[in-house]
Amino acid sequence: MDDVDEPFIAMAPRAKHVLIVDDYQDALDIWVIYLKAIGYRVSTAVDGATAIAKAEQLLPDLIVLDLELPGISGFEAARRLRSNPLTHDIPLIAATGYSHERQLSMARESGFDEVMVKPVEPELLVAVIERHLKSEFTQSQPSNTAVEQAHENG
Fold first, then answer.
1. pTM score, two decimals?
2. What is the DSSP string of 126-138?
3. Number of other residues whose CB lies within 10 A of the CB of residue 59
């Protein structure tokens, strides 16, 4: 599952486009299958450099980005996306295995609109994606989803 499925685009030209970035292929596959099944257009990347390039080229409606990626980290990718006029306003959601407050704070400081601690169930991911796509969410309103999930996960 490497990029937007062309026949799927033809079927749903007005579907919202989500770029999912994760180097863990199983999670990537599950999220892609789930998001496509409910009508999203989906593109993928497995590293930070590819994520930045695809974001600039495809201008997705939203990006879900792992923090620990090969090459350019998710933290750095977020900073670069936020500093680029083309991608500055695309909502960024971090999906990470980090659960310490220091890393979660660093993610918010890097420009993420929301931070979610893995494992993230597809239904929860969709709920967060839909909230960001339906609202005028800004960087000045970071969510505490990561902190809440970290406490729930113990």
1. 0.79
2. HHHHHHHHHS---
3. 12
